[in-house]
Design goal:
The chain is of the alpha/beta class. The chain folds into 2 domains: 264 residues, Zn peptidases (Aminopeptidase, 3-Layer(aba) Sandwich); 110 residues, Alpha-Beta Plaits, CATH 3.30.70. Helix content is 35%, strand content 23%. This is Carboxypeptidase. It holds the Pfam family M20_dimer. It comes from Metabacillus litoralis. Its cofactor is Zn(2+).
């Protein structure tokens, strides 16, 4: 019944997906993120869900959705409305379908997931199942920058939940995410002293030289076998080639597998920042660990077993994968809630400038998987 209903709604699904993808919603584009939110508010209210808007001044508003405002659902579903793309990207390369694949900015990360959640609930209602009343949905606006504004809301909603389902895209061949690395972001700001590079270079104190020493030490912290990666991904400094640079900045991305590693990495980065190589320079370290790791537990294993049982019923093969990428799944997993991620539609190449796609052929099946998992978890 659910699968048949979803197959019959495929045209509607694609139409809504096109509208969402063609609405720019980069994290810092509040107007665009809120426009996506308004579309979703209308669609979810049409099926009788209650939507509470959590306003933000600088970033997009967050949405909290459930069947009744005073209900106490036990399943949490999380998806984000923001993308990594700049304003104008949707006009530059709008939604496009080639064969069974839908392309466009944010189609897979993760506008297809909003459509999936909506139609999973619609399918449950159409089938006469009350399981749709057992979900508490958060659509947040800042996941791509670490969810600084929505993290407290996610933690609040997570209280007393029995399960958490995060609908980042599922991987090819039915990969759902059961483990994720933790994430940290740090910034080094070095101050030196400027001077003319030809007339009196000895009076200068090169901030670039100082930060270069530190960057080499930071890169030595990588230990891929242990799951630790430290990447200095952005460096800026100086004003001109004939001036000793008085300022330099480096942005650092950190990934790790467990809390013990996190504490050790923070200690080492702090030590590196404090050591002076060029006399007369000073360094400030900013940042911290922004997301804890998502680690698999026995309770998570039980949740995965349920999902695999449902998948077998509808002829989907599910496999477990781990990811170095961060997501909001970490915030519920660290609270001890059985959490799975990658329960969204199947697709690939998120954040890509042209290759990102969602698989439309399998879309109804993975929406049915979500709907039937909700139903089974609701007893």
């Amino acid at each position: 019944m659910i699968e048949t209903y979803l197959e019959s709604k495929k045209h509607e699904i694609i139409e809504l997906l096109e509208i969402l993808v063609n609405t720019d919603s980069g994290t810092y584009n509040k107007e665009g993120v809120d426009a996506v939110g308004e579309i979703l508010i209308e669609k979810f209210e049409e099926i009788g869900m209650e939507v509470k808007v959590h306003p933000e001044q600088k970033l997009g508003n967050h949405l909290e959705i459930k069947a009744l405002s005073d209900s106490d659902p036990k399943i949490m579903i999380i998806a984000h409305m923001d993308t990594v793309f700049p304003k104008g990207e949707a006009k530059k390369r709008p939604f496009n379908v080639i064969g069974n694949k839908a392309f466009g900015p944010g189609v897979n990360d993760e506008k297809a997931s909003h459509v999936q959640v909506l139609y999973a609930l619609k399918a449950l209602k159409e089938a006469g199942s009350d399981a749709y009343k057992n979900v508490h949905i958060i659509f947040n606006s800042d996941e791509e920058i670490g969810s600084p504004a929505s993290k407290p809301l996610i933690k609040q909603v997570a209280e007393n939940k029995q399960y958490s389902i995060v609908v980042e895209c599922s991987r090819p061949n039915g990969g759902i995410v059961t483990e994720r690395k933790g994430v940290g972001h740090f910034t080094l700001v070095v101050k030196g002293k400027s001077a003319h590079a030809g007339v009196e270079p000895e009076r200068g104190r090169s901030a670039i030289e100082e930060i270069s020493h530190k960057i080499l030490k930071l890169q030595e912290l990588n230990d891929y076998e242990e799951g630790i990666s430290v990447n200095v991904g952005y460096v800026h400094g100086g004003t001109s080639t004939n001036t000793i640079p008085s300022a330099a900045k480096a942005e650092i991305d950190v990934r790790y597998k467990n809390e013990q590693q996190a504490a050790e990495i923070v200690r080492k980065i702090t030590e590196i920042s404090q050591k002076e190589h060029v006399s007369g320079t000073s360094t400030k370290l900013k940042g911290d660990i922004s997301r804890p790791p998502m680690q698999k537990t026995n309770e998570t294993e039980q949740l995965i077993n349920v999902i695999q049982e449902v998948a077998a019923e509808i002829d989907i093969s599910i496999r477990e994968v781990s990811s170095g990428g961060g997501s909001d799944a970490s915030f519920t997993a660290i609270e001890g809630i059985p959490t799975v991620d990658g329960m969204g539609p199947m697709g690939e190449f998120s954040h890509s400038e042209k290759d990102e796609y969602t698989d439309l052929k399998t879309f109804p099946k993975f929406t049915a998987l979500l709907a039937k998992t909700i139903e089974k978890l609701s007893g």
